[in-house]
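Workshop exercise sheet. Pairs work together: one partner reads the sequence aloud, the other fills in the structure field after running the prediction. Swap roles for the next sheet.
Pair: D.N. / O.F.
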Amino acid sequence: MLTKFPFLIFAVIGYNAIAFFSSLTWDMTVFEVAMVSGVVWRLSLSDIFLVVSLFLLFIEILKATHTGASSLFDHALSTLLFVFCLVEFLLVAKAATSTFFILTIITLIDVIAGFSITIRAARRDFAVGPDRY
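Structure field:
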């Protein structure tokens, strides 16, 4: 059941929750680490958010290796999520940030990788086309 929808929707919901219903800012420092070189490395809320989004993208790419009717439904929802993110980025002021732009690119990569991997896996599973492996 959980594999039938894109996990990146959690990232989009999280972004909107922070942007619209929270007093947090994307550039706020969550923690700092003093490096051996003497420089202080600061990790912002935006950095953590994007790392979590990339982890969700990894899960989506793993899900794309499964073939079946539910994977087509998942790809269709991923495409709708990308279109939603693109429209939100273009039309909503609080979404016109670098963080949301990168999230939109992550959803685009999910769509492209999902369809590409599924086509490749289907070709392998059903032996369509020449054998070039």
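Discussion prompt: The first strand starts at residue 29 and ends at 34. What would you look at next?
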